[in-house]
Amino acid sequence: MTKEERREKILTAPVMPLLIKMAVPTILGMLVMTIYNLTDTFFIGCLGNKSMTAAGFITFLQAVRQTFQDRALQALPQFY
User: Fold this and answer.
1) Cα gap 34→27, rounded to integer Å
2) Structural domain spans, the chain
3) What is the CA radius of gyration of the chain?
4) Beta-carbon contacts of residue 51 (< 8 Å; ≥ 6 apart)
5) Interval 12-68: pLDDT, tens
6) How far apart are the first and last CA of the chain?
7) Residue 37: what pLDDT?
8) What is the distance between the alpha carbons of residues 54 and 61, in angstroms, rounded to a whole number?
C-alpha cells in the first residue's frame, strides 16, 4: 500500500474501526509496560523499604528528565 493509499484510507474509512485498529498496538504496549513495572515493583519491594524509596525517587527523576527533554524537543524546531 502506497503512502497516498494509506492517507486516503485514513481520510475515508469509518472512524471507529480505524481508531480501534490503530489503538490496539498502543494498548498492548502499555499493558506490557504495566505488567513489567508491577513485577519490578514486587521484586524491589522484597528487598525492603530503602530499595522501594530509591526506586520511587529514581522514577521521579526520570519523569522530570523526560519532561524537560520533551519540552526541549518541542522548542528545537523554532531555531531552524
Assistant:
1) 10
2) 1-46, 48-80
3) 20
4) 44, 45
5) 989 999 899 989 999 999 999 999 989 988 999 899 989 889 988 998 999 999 998
6) 33
7) 87
8) 11
pTM of the model: 0.60
CA 43 to chain CA mean position, Å: 23
Angle between helices 49-75 and 15-45 in degrees, nearest 10: 140
In the prediction, which pLDDT does 74 show? 77
Q: How far apart are CA 6 and CA 3, in angstroms?
A: 5
Cell of 39: 513485577
Three-state secondary structure string covering 10-69: HHHCCHHHHHHHHHHHHHHHHHHHHHHHHHHHHHHHCCCHHHHHHHHHHHHHHHHHHHHH
